[in-house]
Amino acid sequence: MERKIILTEKEIPDKWYNIVADMPNKPLPPLHPGTKEPIGPEALAPLFPMELIKQEVTLDKYVDIPDEVRNIYGMWRPTPMYRAYNLEKALDTPAKIYYKYEGVSPTGSHKPNTAVAQAYYNKQEGIKKITTETGAGQWGSALSFACQHFGIQCEVFMVKLSYLHKPYRKVMMNTWGATVHPSPSDATAIGKKILSENPDTTGSLGIAISEAVERAATNDDTKYALGSVLNHVKLHQTIIGQEAVLQMEKAGDLPDIVIAPFGGGSNFAGLAFPFLRLNFDEGKSIRCIASEPSSCPKLTRGQFRYDFGDTAGMTPLLPMYTLGHDFVPAPIHAGGLRYHGAGVIVSQLLKDKLIEARAHDNLEVFEAGVTFARAEGIIPAPEATHGIATAIAEAERCKREGKSETILLNLCGHGNFDMKAYEDYFAGKIVKHELSQAEIDASLAKLSTPLIP
Amino acid sequence: MERKIILTEKEIPDKWYNIVADMPNKPLPPLHPGTKEPIGPEALAPLFPMELIKQEVTLDKYVDIPDEVRNIYGMWRPTPMYRAYNLEKALDTPAKIYYKYEGVSPTGSHKPNTAVAQAYYNKQEGIKKITTETGAGQWGSALSFACQHFGIQCEVFMVKLSYLHKPYRKVMMNTWGATVHPSPSDATAIGKKILSENPDTTGSLGIAISEAVERAATNDDTKYALGSVLNHVKLHQTIIGQEAVLQMEKAGDLPDIVIAPFGGGSNFAGLAFPFLRLNFDEGKSIRCIASEPSSCPKLTRGQFRYDFGDTAGMTPLLPMYTLGHDFVPAPIHAGGLRYHGAGVIVSQLLKDKLIEARAHDNLEVFEAGVTFARAEGIIPAPEATHGIATAIAEAERCKREGKSETILLNLCGHGNFDMKAYEDYFAGKIVKHELSQAEIDASLAKLSTPLIP
Hints:
18 helices, 15 strands, 4-stranded parallel β-sheet, alpha/beta
C-alpha cells in the first residue's frame, strides 16, 4: 500500500500544455482601456520580455520547457502525488482521493513554477532587474528565489500593512537576495505622491502594482512580472498537471474529478488543463472543479463581461467572470483567493461549460483543513483548504451514492506561514459569512465596461 | 544531472541499527542519583512502556521496525537525498556534497521518526495518554502528530515563555489534536506549587519536564516521552542513515565525511551510526563529525564524567560529555542545541575517538545558512546551519588541498518557523560570541558527580 506516486527528474515533462490550441471558442481579445478597441500583444512590450508576450498569445498546443528551467525545476520537482488513504478512511468514503502536493517547493507553493520560467526568459533577453508587487508575500518569495538563481536583481513592492504585520515573508525574500520596499515607498514617483498626500497609508495591492509597473516602464533594463491571471503564467503552471497525468497513469488510475482552489486561476489551470486535454483529445469526461471562497465568488455568482484587471482601472479590459474591479471581499485568511476576477481562459471555459465551479464558506474550509491535517499530516495553506472542502464534499456524495469515483486534488501549498489563521479558527474567530446578492449587484452596477452576450 | 536520489516506500528499511552491539567499549551504566550505585532498566518502568525500555538496553544489532510504524513513515519517508550541485558551484570546491533532507516531514524535522515509534509502542501496551515537555515546540509538534495517528491523547507542557512568544507551534500541536499547557501550569502539583511561589515566572525546560513526568508517574494509563538523548530515541533515528546508506549506493558513491548538527545527539546518531557500521563491519574509514554551537561546546570543550540529565539534578547520573548540568548557554536561536550534555552512546564514541566534533560560532552558522539557502533554495533551521558550517569548512579544505572528497550532511529541518532568527541576522543582531575557559571551568567546578578515568 504505497501512499506516494513519485517520478524521477528525468520524467519531468519537457513541454507545457497550451489549452488555447484546443478550445472550441478562443478567448476574446483584450480591449484598450480608453478606446475600447482590441489591442495586440505589442502593448505589453514595455513590461514583459518578448518570449513571454509570444507565449501570451500563442496558438501552439505545446511550448518546449527550456533545459535550464527544467534543471531548476529539479530542485523540487517532480512533486509527489499522494493517495490519501487516511483521509478516505476518516471520511469512510468509497471514493479514491489523490492529491498532488506543490508545498515541497522552496517557497512552499506552486508559484515558483512560473517564477523560474519568467526569470529565465528575462535573463535570456538581458534584463538586469525584475519588479513585482506582493500582498502576503507568496508571489514575492517565489520571484526572489527564481531571480537569485539567474543572477537577476529582484525588487518587490510589498503592501505596507503586510510588510509590518507579516515580516517573515519579507525576511524570506531577503534571504534569497531580494530588495523589499514597503508600499507605498519613496522609491517611485507614484509612491512619493501617495505618501505626501497620505503619510499614514498602509498601502494596497493596487498601489504596489502601480509602483512595480512604474519602475519597469521607466527603466530599460527592468521588466515586470505577474504571478497569476495572465495566459503565460497559466501555461507555466501546467507542469503540475503534465506530471499528474503521468502519475495517475503510474497509479493505474484516471480521475473522474479534478479539483483545485481558484484565485486568479494559475493553480487551477496548472492541474486541470492537462486533464481537460484528455477530454479534448481522448474523449474522456473528467469533471474539473474550481473551488472559490463564498466571500469572493466570481465564478459562481459573478458576471461574464469585460472588466479591468486592477482595482484602479489602468490595465487593458479583459473578458472575464468578475464581481467588479473595485469589489472588496471580506478579509479572509486565504488572501490569494481575494481577486475580483478570473483569468480569461478559465472564464471562457466556464462560459462554455467545460469546467465547473463551487464556492465554500470560510468556516467550512477550515473544518476541511483541520480534517485533512489530522488525517494526512500536512497542514494546508488557507487557499488550499478550499480545494479540500470540494474534495470532501464530492467524497461524501460518493458515499451517499455508493460510488467509487476517483478524485484528484491540487494541494497547492503548506500552511507553515499561515498558522495565525488556524489560531483564529481554534479561538472561534472564524465565522460563517454570507455575501448578499445586493452587495454583488451593487458592485456590478458600477461597471460601465462592455457586456459579452 | 539528477539532483535527487530517491527511494520508493517499499525501500524504507525494515530494521533500525543498534550501534551498541558493535561498540568496542559499551556505555557505562547509569547511576542512582542518591546512592550513586548502578541502576537497571526497571527504574524507567513508571515512565516508559516496556518495549522501549528493552530497546534502551538491548545488545541486538538490529531491531525490527513494526509494519504499522513503517506505514506511517511512508507519509513522508523515504526522505530525499540531494546532490548539492549549486552549493558546490558556489563554493568552487572539488568536493562532492550531498544532503539528506528531513524537513519534508509534516512537522518539518527529523523528530517524528522517534515520535511515531514511541506512540506505537505505547499504544501496543494500552497507554491512553502521553505527556512531554517542549521548549520552542519542535518535539511537542512531532509527538502531537504521532499520537494523533494512534488515537492516543497527547498532553504537552510548553515553557510559558515560548507559549507566549511562539504561539504558532502551539497552534500546530492543537491542529493535530494535542492539549498544550503553558508551564508552569495548574494541571500538576509541582506546577501549582511553583505558581503559588512565583506567579509571574515564565517557566523553564526543567519545570516543564517535572510537570510532564509527574503526570505520567501518577497516572496508570499515562506515560512520558523524550525526544532526544536516550538510546531508544537514537535507535529510531537510525532510519535516516539506513536510508542514506542505500541512497549513497544508488548514487554509486560513499561518503568520506558524514556531518550532522548536535544537540542531544539523536539527529547526529540518526545519520552517522549506520555509516559507522560500515567502519565496523567493512573496514571503511568514514569520518563522522558532530557540529555543535561554540556557545554550548560540550563535545569540544566539555568533560567526560557522570552528570545529571536535567538541570535540577533529579534524573539518574549518566556518563557523558558535559558542561555541567546547570550550565546556561547563550540564548542562541538554535534552541535545540542548547543542551548541557551529550547522550551516553555518542559520548563513549567520542571518548574512543570513533567520531569527531567541531564547534561553530553563531555568526558563522548564519552566514553558512544564507549561503545554503541562496544556492539550494531550502532555508535551513538554525540547528541545521551548524552542520552546513562544518560541510562548508570541509569543502573549503578540499579546495585548498585539491581533494575531491565526498561529504554527506544531515539537513535535519527547514527554517519556516525560525524566520525571526534570519531577521535578526539581516538586522546585524547576531554577533560572534566567545565562551571563556573560565566560564566553563566555573560550571564544571560545581559538579560533585563521579569522574570517569
